[in-house]
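ARCHIVE CARD
Drawer: 12
Card no.: 0347
Subject: one protein chain, sequence and derived structure
Cross-reference: see card 0346
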Amino acid sequence: MFKMEIKDLLKNKIVDALKSLGVETTSNDILVEASKDISHGDYASNVAMKFARNFSKAPRDVASEIIEKLNKEGIDHIEIAGPGFINFYMKKDSLTGVINKIIKEDIDYGRGNKKNKKINVEFVSANPTGDLHVGHARGAAIGDSLARILAFDGYDVTREYYINDAGSQIDHLGESLIARYKEILGLPFELPEDGYHGEDIIVIAKKIFDKYGDKLLEKENPLEFFKLIGQEYELEKIREDLKKFNIVFDVFSSERAIRSNNAVEKEIEYLSKYIYESEGAKVLRTTDFLDDKDRVIVKSNGEYTYFMPDIVYHVNKLSRGFDELIDVLGADHHGYINRMKSALMMHGYSQDVLNIELIQMVRMMKDGKEFKLSKRTGNGYTLRELVEDAGVDAARYIFVMRAASGHLDFDLDLAVKQSSDNPVYYAQYAHARLCSVLSQAKDIKIDETGSKLKEFSELELVKKLASFTDVVATASKERAPYKITNYIHELAEKIHSFYTECRVIDRDNLEVTSARLGLCLASKIVLRNALDLVGVSAPSKM
């Protein structure tokens, strides 16, 4: 019976019932939700209230007509509640049938059908001029989790990092390295006012000296050399830190490369009908579309604003065949959204071709107090230090736990605490506990039918497992990775309750034991799949 989820089965039954009553609709228009209170059944729908106008009758009367026409296979009984809710009480075997489905599909359980849609997710994109900090870390965790969820839901996803290697910040990097290189040579030096004064610049300058010797200042254009080699070192460091954070990008795009072949000039020419001059500057009429004011793209001194090459970059991404672009940016980019959407609409794209997820600030907390600087270096607290102090799993999980639009207090003490207070420890311990049980009972045959499951905690856990596919689809649709961590926590609660209330291994009652082992295996699979969607490991031992 279980070729599809219970919710989908009920939706299809409702669609068929409405059709027999003369109302044509699809399952997308039907809402079926798992009941939070078991006294209200296993699942509930508001369909009678939604379609009451079609019948010109009271919702409770419509509910009665729908129930009369409904195919009741797999349903124990149905009740009408309140103003017209339809509550479904499922037969036990229709609930527990999901266990076999989960075990059979394994790593693919919860995966969506292929969508035939290419999505580019760009995130982090920090300037290659220094270490990644905790703000970058939150954007990295959310961006990568979003990419994982979209890919699991059936989209063709590309993770992209945009290297800002053509702006003044790279000039300052090169100038700072030359100053430190001169220092190594014993020459007079002066750090540029807008330069980089961190310890990492000294380290890179020493590496350059060790590799290339003491003649670099004799080059025809030493600044260009130091700019290129400096950002190579910085970018390699960023790649290594992200890899340790369980993040690997598919594409690194260079601003310098994208701006080659007069790409910016060509874009200005293309947009000419939307451009006017004001006080010597070129201004783009973004108010013709979604923006609240027009935007300068070329300053009066001839320099481009950062917005102009960004337009070229987004047009470049779309030219590569992507159907949707998602940018994961800091919250200070709020005004950026409508201006970029407007620029793309000038190319004939829909405003929905670009979606921007804004990441709010992170406050690092320890001993109940906020801290911003590293105790080791006195500089900003970095991603590398966070991984060393809290671990990859705790950091990634905690960053994703809250909606990106909300501020986050990261409690470092909680992140390393080995107790149920720590949400990632609580979830991982549930997985390790299941692995332990299955290992202890590896000589007992597993029953995948669930036919012997009847306890409340068993059936509640089964329903939570069955809802995973729906949670994935919702998190994907709403671009909300935190919905996965919410699910993980709720699933872990159900697993711990089941383990506490039910004796899993009872060698005097092997039939029930076999059924409970099947539930353990299905739970282990779903919990592992969910943890993987947020880049967190599922350990077999704690």
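Annotation on reverse: The domain at 420-533 is CATH 1.10.730.10 (Isoleucyl-tRNA Synthetase; Domain 1). The mean pLDDT is 94.
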